[in-house]
């Protein structure tokens, strides 16, 4: 017993050493969401005379069936990387307002007609000036693909060149999300003439009007970009070149920011906020996203208790979003309905029907449905840490209600095989994943419309009423009427409980304060962590 | 001349092993849940788009037809295109091979430099002292410690504290050999821990076995110095099981590289294979595993030849018949 205290002391010291706990407050984590200006977590100091190479570490590379073709790019990282080379007609700002891009202005002539006035100094990286024909052709080329993003463009009836630098888009029905769809990289303006005559292969080349041009790419390893000499904002660029390293392992990305080999690093794990607390040169910010986690409650298996809407609704109501966020995302995830809570006009998640139920009502609902002691299978994927943690917390939260959850954490491909790409009912009762939330409150709700989102067929039956609400939300002009429709849509999704939105999926960006002065928006809709890269200033030449 | 009798048989068995491995890996990969089209096109894709992608890579054909087609092309040195990068698999593997080869080479160097002396010391001090016990403890811990645990620990410690070496900042040895070696130092050390332990243990056992041989007693009786006896009589005879172990270690290094490269973000063949597995990039997995099998088979072949050279008592011809 004499050795008990030294032993305990030794263990405590070893634990402190291994956990890296220095006794310092986790200052980085505490003020990670603090804004330095309205809508911004960081604002570049434009007074810095900047040049050199911007070095960033990313978690994964772009891997798309059509290579580098932005039209069919499906992941946020593809949008981010391709966004260095391409530009869109409109941009989206920190408040999710639309701002000029390659169109310096636009007129909404009617809810079904938009006229875009193009800037006259946009030039592709091959030296050819952009024309109105490129804009018309780019939208048409995107529509031809039938890709997920072409669906987001909505009911486009025609695209016409109506002036030297003017393009008119006509819709067959009102579609409020049009600008939101045009603001993302898949709707990039392409050198259409060269694409059509075959001199530019979009699969292997990036020829855009954006600030940078790729010079090298090693799949899953690295990207190199240099300035596009024809970029219209060349004089204002504070970066000569961009080097991106693809580093899937988080500890290695942490190491890179600690030793300064990276100036700017992205994390999907809120723990990074605390893990970098001991690195004073590292600034760590928590960027809120419109992306959100959701659970699938498979309604298509008649043998599952979840075939009963009452059971699904009870399970939905039993999930405590605040606790889920605290335990899995360090409290940074925001409870949300199907319209992402950080977007203008989104519904209030506290007003959702499921949030009004008491524990007794949940228990009674399950008892009424004859589901007092049930076992449900849950499957999620392992390429990020959060889904597995979310699954475990949900398991704990449902247990007091007599719902036993068997968790299986698998790789992405296995998860995909369980829930998508077949005619059979999904292979599990519950799934945990996330959706990109985009830049308009109605865009993601398309995935709840069974007429439009065939990929949900293995776990969702939907209803004509729900489908109509999705259509209404996309057609109504922004304002109180649309807000009311979004609230109804959120309630319908919540009650049907086939895909249940949980909480937003924030990202963590760490940057070296001694090496770089970046601009980072507080809220992001398209996962573009380089949205303001043209404003970045380097404090050393990198 | 004996080698000429023995070699054709060994080559034939090597080809059979490679063929068997190719069938196994082809079947194993295809039986995994989820497919490439689903992964790359994502959940938002429809069946028509997935089918189109499968057709473009020939996955709509029957499995035997796919296998024979792949095998025929592979025999001509064409392993097809990576489904993810759409680049020739052989080029992709070749660009990553120097990294893995250097990593494995460094780990092997550490293994030989530490494992054999440690084993000799433990063997020659088997009956006395703390040194032998310490060597046994070290080798037992080394064998018991999985490299993914050790790797994660090292990554954490070296990323959390400034310990002189950085993790994750890889430099290609083809662009800067010196910096490339430094950036591979930690992964190579982690990879070598098991090999050092196994080599030390095997060497120790072999040394103990040789020490009781009559010719050692004769050398002692002749008054030869201890160091001379160990270098000229003990080590040479004890090396045979160590050489055999080297073939196994080669296979282990290739397998271990898969984990270590992933943990340390080393862009070698191992991490490339893990990514390919995640993406169900069939052509890469098939070619990568076949390459690893070929390396192991060739290493075994070379070790057999070396064993015969080190100890002429081991009949190469006899081994050949037994094969």
TrEMBL record, chain A:
Recorded superkingdom? Bacteria
Q: Which Gene3D superfamilies match?
A: Dipeptide-binding Protein, Domain 1 (3.90.76.10), Dipeptide-binding Protein, Domain 3 (3.10.105.10), Periplasmic binding protein-like II (3.40.190.10)
InterPro entries tied to this protein: Peptide/Ni-bd, SBP_5, SBP_5_dom
GO CC terms, sorted: ATP-binding cassette (ABC) transporter complex; periplasmic space
* Residue ranges constituting the Solute-binding protein family domain according to the UniProt record: 97-452
- Gene Ontology molecular function terms on file: peptide transmembrane transporter activity
Name of the protein? Peptide ABC transporter substrate-binding protein
TrEMBL record, chain B:
Location of this chain's protein in the cell: Cell membrane
Q: What is its main location?
A: membrane
Q: Which CDD domains would you find in this protein's record? A: TM_PBP2
- Which keywords are on file for this protein? Cell membrane, Membrane, Transmembrane, Transmembrane helix, Transport
Coiled-coil region(s) at which residues?
A: none
**According to its UniProt record, what is one Pfam family this protein matches?**
BPD_transp_1_N
Q: What is its membrane topology?
A: Multi-pass membrane protein
- Record carries keyword RNA-binding: no
Chain ranges of the ABC transmembrane type-1 domain: 97-307
GO function terms (MF aspect): dipeptide transmembrane transporter activity
Gene Ontology CC: plasma membrane
Q: From the record, give the transmembrane residue ranges.
A: 99-121, 133-157, 177-198, 238-264, 284-310
The family line of this record is: Belongs to the binding-protein-dependent transport system permease family.
- What is the protein name for this chain? Peptide ABC transporter
């Amino acid at each position: 017993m004499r050795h008990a205290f030294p032993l305990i002391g030794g263990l405590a010291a070893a634990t402190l050493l291994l956990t890296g706990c220095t006794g310092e407050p986790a200052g980085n984590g505490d003020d990670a969401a603090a804004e330095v200006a309205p809508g911004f977590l960081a604002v570049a100091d434009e007074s810095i005379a900047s040049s050199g190479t911007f070095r960033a570490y990313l978690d994964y590379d772009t891997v798309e069936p059509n290579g580098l073709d932005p039209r069919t790019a499906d992941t946020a990282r593809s949008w981010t990387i391709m966004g260095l080379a391409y530009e869109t007609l409109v941009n989206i700002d920190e408040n999710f307002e639309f701002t000029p891009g390659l169109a310096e202005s636009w007129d909404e002539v009617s809810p079904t007609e938009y006229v875009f006035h193009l800037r006259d100094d946009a030039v592709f990286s091959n030296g050819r000036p952009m024309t109105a024909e490129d804009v018309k052709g780019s939208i048409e080329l995107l529509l031809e693909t039938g890709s997920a993003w072409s669906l987001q463009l909505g009911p486009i009836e025609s695209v016409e060149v109506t002036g030297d630098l003017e393009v008119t888009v006509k819709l067959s029905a009102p579609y409020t999300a049009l600008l939101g769809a045009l603001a993302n990289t898949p709707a990039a303006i392409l050198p259409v003439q060269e694409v059509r005559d075959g001199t530019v292969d979009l699969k292997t080349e990036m020829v855009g009007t954006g600030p940078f041009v790729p010079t090298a790419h090693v799949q899953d390893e690295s990207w190199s970009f240099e300035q596009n000499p024809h970029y219209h904002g060349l004089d204002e660029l504070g970066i000569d070149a961009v080097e991106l390293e693809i580093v899937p392992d988080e500890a290695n990305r942490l190491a890179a920011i600690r030793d300064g080999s990276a100036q700017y690093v992205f994390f999907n794990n809120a723990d990074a906020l605390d893990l970098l607390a001991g690195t004073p040169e590292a600034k760590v910010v928590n960027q809120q996203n419109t992306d959100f986690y959701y659970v699938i409650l498979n309604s298509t298996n008649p043998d599952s208790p979840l075939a009963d809407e009452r059971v699904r609704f009870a399970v939905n109501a039993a999930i405590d979003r605040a606790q889920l966020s605290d335990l899995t995302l360090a409290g940074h995830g925001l409870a949300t309905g199907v319209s992402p809570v950080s977007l203008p006009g989104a519904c209030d998640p506290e007003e959702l029907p499921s949030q009004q139920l008491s524990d007794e009502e949940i228990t009674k609902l399950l008892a009424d449905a004859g589901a007092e002691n049930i076992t449900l299978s849950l499957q999620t994927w392992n390429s990020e840490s959060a889904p597995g943690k979310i699954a475990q917390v949900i398991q704990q939260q449902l247990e007091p209600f007599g719902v036993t959850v068997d968790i299986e954490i698998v790789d992405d491909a296995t998860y995909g095989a369980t829930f998508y790409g077949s005619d059979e009912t999904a292979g599990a009762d519950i799934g945990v994943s996330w959706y990109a939330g985009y830049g308009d409150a109605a865009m993601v709700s398309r995935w709840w419309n069974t007429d439009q989102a065939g990929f949900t067929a293995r776990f969702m039956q939907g209803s004509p009423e729900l489908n109509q609400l999705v259509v209404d939300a996309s057609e109504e002009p922004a304002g109180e009427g649309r807000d009311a429709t979004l609230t109804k849509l959120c309630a319908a999704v919540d009650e049907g409980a086939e895909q249940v939105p949980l909480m937003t999926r924030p990202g963590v960006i760490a940057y070296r304060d001694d090496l770089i002065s970046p601009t980072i928006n507080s809220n992001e809709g398209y996962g573009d962590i380089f949205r303001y890269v043209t404003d970045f200033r380097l404090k050393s030449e990198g | 001349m004996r080698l000429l009798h023995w070699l054709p048989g060994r080559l034939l068995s090597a080809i059979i092993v490679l063929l068997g491995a190719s069938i196994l890996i082809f079947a194993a990969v295809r039986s995994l849940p989820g497919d490439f089209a689903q992964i790359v096109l994502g959940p938002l894709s429809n069946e028509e788009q997935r089918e189109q992608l499968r057709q473009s890579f020939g996955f709509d054909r029957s499995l035997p037809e796919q296998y024979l087609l792949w095998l025929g092309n592979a025999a001509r040195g064409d392993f097809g295109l990576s489904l993810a990068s759409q680049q020739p698999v052989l080029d992709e593997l070749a660009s990553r091979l120097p990294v893995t080869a250097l990593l494995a080479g460094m780990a092997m160097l550490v293994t030989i430099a530490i494992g054999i002396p440690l084993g000799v010391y433990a063997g020659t001090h088997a009956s006395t002292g703390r040194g032998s016990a310490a060597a046994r403890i070290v080798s037992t811990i080394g064998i018991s410690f999985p490299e993914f645990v050790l790797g994660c620990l090292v990554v954490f410690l070296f990323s959390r504290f400034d310990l002189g070496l950085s993790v994750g900042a890889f430099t290609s040895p083809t662009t800067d050999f010196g910096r490339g070696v430094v950036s591979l130092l930690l992964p190579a050390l982690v990879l070598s821990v098991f090999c050092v332990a196994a080599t030390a243990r095997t060497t120790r056992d072999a040394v103990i076995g040789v020490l009781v041989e009559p010719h050692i007693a004769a050398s002692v009786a002749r008054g030869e110095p201890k160091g001379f006896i160990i270098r000229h009589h003990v080590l040479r005879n004890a090396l045979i099981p160590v050489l055999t172990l080297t073939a196994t270690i080669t296979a282990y290094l290739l397998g271990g590289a898969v984990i270590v490269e992933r943990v340390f973000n080393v862009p070698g063949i191992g991490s490339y294979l893990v990514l390919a597995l995640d993406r169900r990039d069939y052509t890469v997995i098939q070619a990568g595993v076949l390459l690893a099998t070929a390396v192991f088979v060739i290493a075994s072949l070379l070790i057999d030849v070396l064993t015969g050279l080190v100890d002429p008592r081991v009949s190469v011809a006899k081994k050949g018949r037994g094969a």
